[in-house]
Amino acid sequence: MQQSFWxxxxxxxxxxxxxxxxxxxxxxxxxxxxxxxxLPDTPTPVVDLAESLTSLQEENLVKKLEQFEADTGWKLRxxxxxxxxxxxxxIPFWGLDDKSVLLVADSRxxxxxxxxxxxxxxxxxxxxxxxxxxxxxxxxxxxxxxxxDQAILQAMETVKNCLLEGGCAVVPGLPQEQxxxxxxxxxxxxxxxxxxxxxxxxxxxxxxxxxxxxSPLWGILFISFGIGPVVTRTNDWLPLxxxxxxxxxxxxxxxxxxxxxxxxxxxES
Length: 269
Known about the structure:
Structural class: alpha/beta
């Protein structure tokens, strides 16, 4: 159980950076051909070719997306596919434009989710948002535990809520794997700060100059990777308090480590 948990954390970090590198370095056309016979005759915002959703889930999602478009003008669409894909035929079928978001779920890849986003949407939800959204809900560990249906439904619900709020720089919510990563970063930052602050001459209490010199390193680990992801994704104080406590404990342990070493040496002699 413990090994599986740490594997999930490692996979979360790996998938996040892999998805980012693919997004930045490679932006292929999402659809290479037309296959319109796979599309239904009646208009619908959801085309579930892979049958990832139950009939009730699909019905409820259709109602929500249609109501959302009527209320806000944002056009959200869902396509699930496996062996068969309609390709570029979805563009005229749905009339995709600058205010459209298309979620494509395809379980043949390492991450089942991909997004085709209109230019107007990027003003509210930047590219980094879509990378994180894909990484959080489309990774194999989430799909294995929650199912493809929940990956689709939760991703679309997140998009809806963020558009209603006027935009999101990051995906709201702090998964446990991501919080563990921020806690580890905070503790490591504390260790670096504590080691740097150890006195280096007689009578010195804190080597604040060295702590200041190393501040870019421990500051990035603690503030950028430890505190930043927490305060931008949740209003819950508990993970923030834990990360700050982890940083302070790391500082204290590293700072006092020479005292512990001298005590051990004296006890042995």
